[in-house]
Design goal:
The protein is of the alpha/beta class. It has helices at residues 3-9, 16-19, 21-29, 32-35, 39-46, 68-91, 93-108, 121-131, 148-161, 177-186, 210-219, 299-315, 317-335, 365-376, 401-415, and strands spanning 56-57, 115-118, 139-143, 164-168, 192-198, 223-227, 246-250, 262-266, 341-343, 356-360, 378-379, 381-385, 388-393. The model has no long low-confidence stretch (mean pLDDT 95). The structure holds pyridoxal-5'-phosphate.
Length: 416
């Protein structure tokens, strides 16, 4: 598929080719919060996805399916790479990798010299956790609601280097940012070296005040590592504005790139401090690529990030964020306060995004997930752990309000 074909099927700098110049001019002029409620506009976007008629997919928090233009472009890239084979690797791969890194750095508002492409958030964060110069007795701070793989990686450092992990538990509905800042601060001691914080907690959708926590941690001389698996590509922000030392995300989540792509951002002065997982001694200690030796890997996945970026940029992060926030509030506002239904997501709209979690009193999370799927053909995921009991509901850009009405109806029936 050439660039023009891609633009025709959606992607590139504008949606004018998809909607027609006139309609697009009208849509583009609307404030994102208004466009977020325009079902005709989003129905056209929806047609760019192939969806199963068998069930309503409200479990897009694991990873987000690619739109058809992005998928088709990716498949073509697989074919092209297969033809060019080692000649591509030897002549074009380094420049192409740098070009994609440069686009991602522009999206994250950071210098390209501080960002590398990895396979996913897990690889990125574990590169930091495992690369830290731990001494016995050093301490790390994290939350019970953080992602299991990273908690395990800290657990591994405890076994290997005798570090101490201090784990806080996040409240569902903090009264203020200060509640969260003080919670993390309460776990810091003179031995604390690293604090991990989720930008958005995956099981509840809770958006945390990362910059305020980072400022507090820095006052104690503690470095801050942000798990941004669920925010890069979902919300509008610049990575440096989080005031952290390390940031990671998965591009197959909210950028909806081909599977197996992520980023790691390391503040420039920390680059020489980390031990790389895989060595490449020819690269200077100040060059972030020293943390990125991957061996031979699926380069078409990295090239496919270009197509995901085209699609993402054609809609624009402001419109995307507004629509995703609208969809979450659309259904949560309809069930909040309904007898026997409870939400495991902050009620303050500023503290969440696309993801929310809901439970029904007296129904186990697994049974609720099963009932939603078996009786109503609605696919969600049950969460039962870290003090959170319910099903996680995550819409995507293709989600319609009609589908969310079906969810609301199902929850009301189950609660009754
Ligand atoms: C908060 C959070 N961190 C990290 C991850 C791991 O992402 P990946 O499997 O893409 O490495 C996830 C995955 O769902 C997540 O939700």
């Amino acid at each position: 598929m050439d660039k023009r074909e891609f633009l025709k099927t959606l992607g590139g700098a504008s949606l004018a080719l998809l909607f027609g110049e006139e309609a697009w001019a009208r849509y583009a002029a609307l404030p994102p919060a208004t466009l977020a409620q325009d079902e005709d506009f989003w129905a056209t976007i929806r047609r760019k996805y192939v969806l199963t008629p068998d069930y309503i997919n409200l479990e897009n928090g694991f990873y987000l399916m690619q739109s058809q233009p992005v998928l088709e472009a990716f498949i073509q890239r697989v074919r092209d790479i297969n033809v060019q084979a080692s000649r591509y690797m030897r002549t074009r791969m380094p420049d192409d990798n740098l070009a994609v890194r440069t686009r991602l750095a522009a999206m994250g508002g950071c210098p390209v010299e501080e960002l590398i492409i990895t396979r996913n958030t897990t690889e990125s964060l574990d590169t930091v956790i495992g690369g830290f110069h731990w001494q016995a007795g050093d301490e790390a701070v994290m939350a019970q609601q953080d992602y299991g793989a990273m908690l395990d990686m800290f657990g591994l450092q405890a076994r290997r280097h005798s570090i101490v992990n201090r784990v806080v538990s996040l409240p569902m509905d903090p009264r203020s940012d200060d509640d969260i800042v003080r919670l993390y601060e309460s776990a810091i001691t003179p031995k604390t070296r690293l604090l991990m914080i989720c930008h958005m907690v995956n099981i509840t959708g809770h958006l945390l005040p990362v910059a305020a926590v980072a400022d507090m941690a820095h006052r104690h001389g503690v470095q801050v590592m942000v798990d941004g698996a669920h925010t890069f590509g979902q919300l509008e922000f610049d990575i440096p504005d989080l005031h952290a030392d390390y940031f990671a995300s998965s591009l197959h989540k909210w950028l909806a790139s081909p599977l197996g792509a992520g980023i790691l951002w390391v503040r420039r002065d920390h680059i020489p401090e980390l031990w790389p997982t895989f060595a490449e001694l020819g690269i200077p200690d100040t060059d972030i690529r020293r943390l990125n030796h991957t061996g031979t890997h699926p380069v078409h996945t990295i090239l496919g990030i270009n197509d995901a970026l085209d699609f993402h940029e054609s809609i624009g992060i402001k419109r995307k964020e507004a629509r995703l926030r609208y969809l979450q509030r659309y259904w949560t506002d309809k069930v909040r306060g309904v007898p026997h239904i409870y939400l495991n997501t902050p009620s303050d709209a500023r503290r969440s995004g696309a993801i929310a979690n809901v439970g029904v009193t007296g129904i186990q999370p697994g049974a609720l997930g099963d009932a939603l799927f078996n009786r109503y053909k609605i696919w969600t995921v049950a969460i039962d752990g870290a003090g959170v009991r319910g099903v996680r509901v995550t819409p995507h850009l293709f989600t319609s309000t009609g589908e969310l009405d079906a969810l609301v109806g199902a929850l009301r029936e189950l609660a009754a």
